Amino acid sequence: MNSGNFKNMSIRYLLFTKPRASNIQKRHFSEEFFWWKHLENAPPDSILGIKKIYNMDKNPNKVDLIVGAYRDANGKPVILPSVLEAEKMIEKKYTDKEYAPISGLPQFNQLSAQLLLGPDSSVLCNQLNATSQTVSGSGALYVSGKFMAQFFPGNTCIYLPQPTWANHEAIFKFVGLEVAWYRYCDPKVSKLDFEGLMDDINKIPEKSIAFFQGCAHNPTGVDPSQEQWCEISQLVKKRQLFPVFDVAYQGFASGDFYNDAFSFRTFLQDGHKVAILQSYSKSMGLYGEYQISKLLHEIYVVR
Ligand SMILES: Cc1ncc(COP(=O)(O)O)c(C=O)c1O
């Protein structure tokens, strides 16, 4: 097969397009073969819909704040110098395309865990962690959700802040978890509804799963204060809940990776067993690396 044919064929299979009529006859495809022909389009993604409206807007002063990605003064994408440097190092170091171990590159996992918890963390020093690489933060949500749906011994209902990133609900339902809510933000005043949050968490059935965004909450930008995190941690302990932290914006809230780790580090200090789902899409400007498992993200579970 020459390379031209090969290219056409792989594109056809990738895009699930219908082969031309002549090919259908040649290969004796029956009508039933196109089992996807009755499928309806999924509803349009609301965020990408805003992007469409943005593109149509003629205002010269418009600013794109839709996706959490770095931009320069002219609105152009920015690649962090550290990322460029890392790419050069990777290019030199990895000369083959062999399989990584099933849970990812050990060194990547170890350094990711250190970035989250600090190199002196007693969890890491005592090797109490299990860390896996996944395809981005969405992959971490999916894998951890599937893991909990299958193996969590308590109530497989995950309690999410109201509101939260729309895909949290979608992914967790998709993997078979039940989803419920606790109050988080009062939309009228864009302020944390701390009383509502504590009240609702206090009513969550024991041994359920409580989900938090570790910092820079999406979509509100509203986080509990350090004192409030300490109180939440105590309540979660009292209710014997399993805390799961989604950390998609470490560094975005305070400008400092260490400060933005306060929530989950506090929970660990308080003796919780936790799951932390880490993404570098935003914090390191790596959205475009979705397809490359080498540079990716992790799910992190403490035993
Ligand atoms: C709060 C939150 N968690 C997880 C994700 C998913 O991360 P990723 O883009 O790395 O899949 C996002 C993406 O926008 C997010 O906002």
* Mean pLDDT across residues: 84
Q: List the total number of helices.
A: 11
Helix content: 25-40%
Which consecutive residue ranges, at least 5 long each, have pLDDT under 50?
A: 1-19, 291-303
Distance between the termini: 51 Å
> How many β-strand runs?
9
Measured by DSSP, the beta-strand proportion falls in 5-15%
Question: If you compute it from the alpha carbons, what radius of gyration comes out, rounded to the nearest whole angstrom?
Answer: 22 Å
Report strand order across the widest sheet: 1-9-8-7-6-2-3
Secondary structure elements and their pairing?
Blueprint: H1 3-15, H2 21-27, H3 46-56, H4 81-93, H5 106-117, H6 122-125, E1 129-134, H7 136-151, E2 157-162, H8 166-174, E3 178-183, E4 185-186, E5 191-192, H9 194-203, E6 209-213, H10 226-238, E7 242-247, H11 262-269, E8 275-278, E9 297-302
Parallel strand pairs: 2-3, 2-6, 6-7, 7-8
Antiparallel strand pairs: 1-9, 4-5, 8-9
Helix pairs in contact: 7-8, 9-10, 10-11
The chain binds pyridoxal-5'-phosphate.
Pyridoxal-5'-phosphate binds at residues 136-138, 165, 213, 218, 246, 248, 279, 281, 297.
Describe this structure in words.
With 303 residues, the protein is α/β, with parallel strands linked by helices. 38% of the residues lie in helices and 14% in strands. It has eleven helices and nine strands. The protein has helices at residues 3-15, 21-27, 46-56, 81-93, 106-117, 122-125, 136-151, 166-174, 194-203, 226-238, 262-269, and strands at residues 129-134, 157-162, 178-183, 185-186, 191-192, 209-213, 242-247, 275-278, 297-302. The strands form two sheets. The protein has a seven-stranded mixed β-sheet with strand order 1-9-8-7-6-2-3. A two-stranded antiparallel sheet has the order 4-5. Helix 9 runs parallel beside helix 10. It is globular and about 60 Å long. It starts with a helix and ends with a strand. Residues 1-19 and 291-303 have low confidence and may be disordered. The structure holds pyridoxal-5'-phosphate. Pyridoxal-5'-phosphate is lined by residues 136-138, 165, 213, 218, 246, 248, 279, 281, 297. Its cofactor is pyridoxal 5'-phosphate. This is Aspartate aminotransferase, mitochondrial. GO terms for molecular function: L-aspartate:2-oxoglutarate aminotransferase activity; pyridoxal phosphate binding. Residues 61-289 form the Aminotransferase class I/classII large domain. Keywords: Aminotransferase, Pyridoxal phosphate, Transferase.
